[in-house]
Amino acid sequence: MSEHKYQRHVEKDHAIIDGIDVSGIWNRMWEPREITDFDFTNLNKVLDLSGAESMGWCYQCAQCIGVCPVDNVGSYGPRKLYRKLQNGMDLFTHSDLWLCTTCNNCLRVCPKEVDMMKIMPAVREQAILEGNVPGELQEMLQNVAEYGNPMGESARKRIRWMKNLDEPVRDLSKEPGEVDVLWYVSDYFSYHPRGNDAAQAMVRVFNRLGIDFGILGREEKCDGDSQRLCGESGLFEELVEHNHAMFEKNPHERLVVSDPHAYNAFKNHYPELTGSEYPVQHYTQFLAEHIDQLKEMLTGRFERKVTFHDPCYLGRHNGEYEAPRTLIEAIPGIEFMEMYRCKQQGYCCGGGGGGMWLDGLTGEHTSERLSENRVREAIMVGAEVLVVCCPYEVSRFEDAVKSTDNEGALEVMDIIEIIDMCINN
Ligand code: SF4
Ligand code: SF4
């Protein structure tokens, strides 16, 4: 492909057409640019991967760019990736491979069904095999492989959050057997200090509702959905095998999860490997079914202006927008307002698809974190509290509140924490 070729043109010194003189530059015609002149080697390397074929279906309409959260703070989106691939970019070694948060907003609007949720894991898997993986992500993947959680904490410490909790919790790793609700606590509720607050709140709410529930305790391992999206399909398969065996060991009516990523994994991806269906609900769905009982118990008031952040993996990926809102609106005294980007058009926090562990790399290619952009929006609509229901988000947004100098202006709380406060008042 030579620059020179595209500058070639044909120009006639004398041309009289229909009696009109269109000589010289007025009749200048460029030779057709043959698209086959592009070097497709790197594009074809992507299209040859099982799962990544749809990258080639892009017809450059640009619907995806306006909705891509990463483009909002940088320059990104499937259309731009395709164009760069046409121009010879090697995606397997390029930072663009790791910027997509798999938020699903581009697929929602794409007329050609270019599916980043399949393209990204396929290309990332190959990149990992070739040894091209960002250091911060590599560390997380090693931790999950070795310890069963991204933090690299021991399995024993998974129940440390219960230490000062004066509430009964059945630990199925010590007392296996049948239970109505198997509550999958998840990594961030188990190990992160702010997640611990929400986990303790969940126990109090379950107990006040009289739910017969149990947890897997030290036998619980990471659900693996983010690791799958990072391209670690082998690690995902190991985690599926382990968690599935634990679910089988402890028969249950419902599998209630704290984490939308776990919800997505158990609902949509574990069945592909195990052949089993899981009676899985996100905790907001489970509690929304108990809304009448909850309303009677909600005696305290929460007199604050709040807004709600839809988690991509509960909302756009799985279509659940109402259950969290049902709970929020049931809280006495609350003043609820939507952000501009909500429900189907909800803005990603930046934590999905491995983004949770890629802040260093994304920071080099974006003007601000997605979570910072979101915090500004929450403040713009007049909220005092940003309400969330995904374990990744409390820590992400609390960091963003600090880094945008908004400490004191915006608080971040999980829905379960607010319910717990109003029940126990
Ligand atoms: S919306 Fe789909 S077809 Fe249109 S530019 Fe984006 S990826 Fe390509
Ligand atoms: S999935 Fe989300 S972050 Fe990834 S390219 Fe599409 S819109 Fe952008």
Could you walk me through the main structural features you see in this protein, from its secondary elements to its overall organization?
The chain has 425 residues and is of the alpha/beta class. The chain has four domains: 3-30, no CATH class; 41-129, no CATH class; 152-288, 3-Layer(aba) Sandwich (Rossmann fold); 291-423, 3-Layer(aba) Sandwich (Rossmann fold). It is 42% helix and 10% strand. It is built from 20 helices and 13 strands. It has helices at 3-7, 41-47, 63-67, 69-72, 78-86, 105-109, 116-129, 135-147, 187-191, 193-209, 225-229, 233-249, 260-274, 283-288, 291-297, 322-329, 359-363, 370-380, 391-403, 415-423; strands at residues 9-10, 16-17, 20-21, 29-30, 170-171, 179-184, 213-215, 252-257, 280-282, 305-308, 335-336, 385-388, 411-414. The strands form four sheets. It has a five-stranded parallel β-sheet. The protein has a four-stranded parallel β-sheet with strand order 11-10-12-13, sandwiched between helices. Helix 18 (370-380) crosses helix 19. The longest helix has 17 residues, at 193-209. Residues 67-70, 76-78, 100-106, 116 line the site of one iron/sulfur cluster (SF4).
Keywords:
single chain; Rossmann fold; 5-stranded parallel beta sheet; disordered N terminus; binds iron/sulfur cluster
